[in-house]
Design brief:
By secondary structure, this protein is an alpha/beta fold. It has two helices and three strands; from the N terminus they run βαβαβ. The N and C termini lie far apart (about 40 Å).
């Protein structure tokens, strides 16, 4: 029986350089095996609630941590 593991961290970051820096820091310190990155608040909401392009994702497999940029396109981090 194969067990599917959920992404441990959801990184919500629109800036490519900042996203790469965050992922590099996480990997350097062995803090996460699986990181999923989305680029705006709308995509983050789709991921969390398993809608749109993420409709096939199991909604019960929520990430353990969400790293959220506050200044995002479409839906910002404060909303």
């Amino acid at each position: 029986m194969k067990i599917e593991h959920t992404d441990e961290i959801l990184l919500v970051e629109d800036n490519q350089n900042d996203a790469e820096l965050a992922i590099r820091a996480l990997k350097k310190h062995h803090l996460a095996n699986k990181v999923h990155r989305v680029r705006d608040g709308e995509e983050a909401l789709d991921y969390v609630f398993a809608k749109g392009p993420y409709a096939q994702r199991n909604r019960d497999d929520a990430p353990k941590l969400i790293l959220l940029d506050l200044k995002l396109p479409k839906v910002d981090g404060l909303e």
